[in-house]
Design brief:
Blueprint: H1 2-5, H2 11-134
Length: 137
Amino acid sequence: MNELLYSRDIPAFHQTEKVAGEVRTLAQRSATAARDIKHLIEEAVAQVESGVVVATGTGKSILDINAMVGKLAVAMDNISLASAEQMQGISQVSIAVNQMDGVTQNNAALVEESSSASQSLSVQAHSLREAVNAFRI
């Protein structure tokens, strides 16, 4: 009976052989598909790892930028404070210059008065000398 099953002339044998060929083809396709899927998974893992590296770098860059913005804010506050101090100093210099201008104008008026008084004294001294000379013998 076993001889009948293994005989190549029986149509069932040919049918089994055909099914076995199709199973082999499907197995080969499955193996190829599995390799393709494995390759795709490996690529996806590599891309995810690359994305993690990029995201980590981006996070570090954002932290660095945040620190720089903080330093910039402090520097701007310092500049603002220094500008206010300079403005106050300039205001004080302006007040001092105005006071010096007033003193200079007062000094000019005093010089003019002194000059006028000096001329008057000179005229009076000249007149007095002439008067004294009149009494000289």
